[in-house]
Each structure stands twice: as structure tokens, then as C-alpha cells.
Amino acid sequence: MEPVAEDATEEERKPSFRESVKCKIFLGFTSNLISSGVRESIRFLVEHRMVDVLVTTAGGIEEDLIKCLCPTYMGDFALPGAQLRSKGLNRIGNLLVPNENYCKFEDWVVPVLDQLLVEQTQQGIVWTPSKVIARLGREINHPSSVCYWAQKNGIPIYCPALTDGSLGDMIYFQSFRNPGLVIDIVQDIRGMNNEAVRAGLSKTGIIVLGGGVPKHHICNANMMRNGADFSVFINTAQEFDGSDSGARPDEAISWGKIRGDSDPVKVHCDATIAFPLLVAETFAKRFHN
Hints:
Blueprint lengths: L14 H6 L2 E7 L1 H5 L3 H9 L5 E4 L1 H12 L3 E2 L6 H6 L2 E4 L2 E4 H25 L5 H12 L5 H7 L4 E2 L7 H12 L7 H13 L5 E7 L2 H12 L6 E6 L13 H7 L9 E4 L2 H11 L1 H6 L1
């Protein structure tokens, strides 16, 4: 049990109260983590309700769905790009994704997008990125999918950059073929920030794999409640270019995104190595025990 905060009330100092306090966990990850082998660890956490809010990029959504439709192949970091291009192969690090995978994804997702437009028009539904992702998770209906388990367990997935990927390409094409679909990001920024603001007496914890939009989106939401109580960053980015991705937790403390009296950690490591070990020694160990 953590030490009692100096500003704690008499009620908050009671052992019974302290044992009752839960922690809302925000998990953020960039798309490459879904592509490169950590998908199974993330899926395990979501399937067993061990995290409460997810934030990712467009690739984190579409790659999860595509892997339900067709495989990704092992390649090599040094394979020549021009040669791969001539063979219809796209490289993600040392992984290869055939163009055919995205064709299958288009065949699957276009009817879903068309149905969203029908429901928007006929039922007045206002779609947001998180609502769209939940619907895609329901439609894919596959137990290996993070999106599937998130919608099944009522865990929201926020993706403020939903159009920055193949899914955005599909939405772009639809805007010509069958125009009219509106995806409202304002509702989602309210929803995301309220996940932190309305945590109430619960603590909030941040786990971020990588950087970019997921890292800042989670940290910024927690600024609305004067900072997260617990924070773990795992990435290889450095702070010397002034990027948020590379920033140490202490920089987030200066903004009020992490509490000043907390003990945040940044692990300078490849998240595909560190995160499965972290899950195995914490969440999974507790689950199996």
C-alpha cells in the first residue's frame, strides 16, 4: 500500500478506505506495437479487463483488424524497398504485408462504412472515432482482435488520428463513392478527458508504449485532473530534440500531466521486448495466481 498523501483527509487515511480505492489504467500504444508482436499481450489485458481506456493510432486499429483477415510475414530490415514495391509487398520494420491484405481489408470494411452512413441518415446516430472502432470490433467478431474484446468488455478505444492510415484511405474513397459520413472528434475529446476527470476517488495510471499522439493524448487528459498518480513510459525516443515522444516523465510533471508527488518511470527500451516481460511479471502473474 502506498504512503498516505500529506493532503489526505481523515477518511482517506483509514485503511478500509485506502484498500477500496481502485486505479483506472490508461494504455496507449503506437500502431507498430500491434504489427510487431505485442498485439497478443495487449489483447490479453483487454480480454481480461485489466485496463480501462485505450488510445492508439489508425494503424493500431486497422492492423488489428487486418490480422484477423490475413497473415503478416517475416522479412528483414535490409530488404530493398524498390524490390519490395515491384512485388506488391509493404515493409513494417522486418515484417512484410502484401498489397492483397489491404484489398481484403477494403472488401470487408467498405460495407461497414456504408452501413454507418445509413444509420447516421436514418437514425440520427452521431459517429465518433471511438464509436466507429467499437462497431468495427463488433463486426470483426474475432477472438484474436483487440478491438473485438474492447467492444465486448465496454473498454473505449480512442483514436484522434483515425484517418491517418488505410482506414482513412477507405473513408476518403467513400467520400466520393457514397458521400455524407461524418465522424465527430469533439464528442471523443469530451469522452477522453472525462475518463480522467470522472475517475473520482480512483487513482489513474498511465502505461504508454512508444510516443506520439497516444502518449500526449493520455497525458493531456490526465492534466484535467491535476495529473496521473502512476506512470510508465516505454520507448527508445530521446528528449534532446524537444519532442513529446522523447520527453522524460519529469517534463509531464511540469505541465501537471503527472502528479508531482508520484514516482513515474521511463524505460529506455524496445517496447516489443520490455512490455511482454512487464505483463508476464505483473498482470499475468496476478491473473494466474
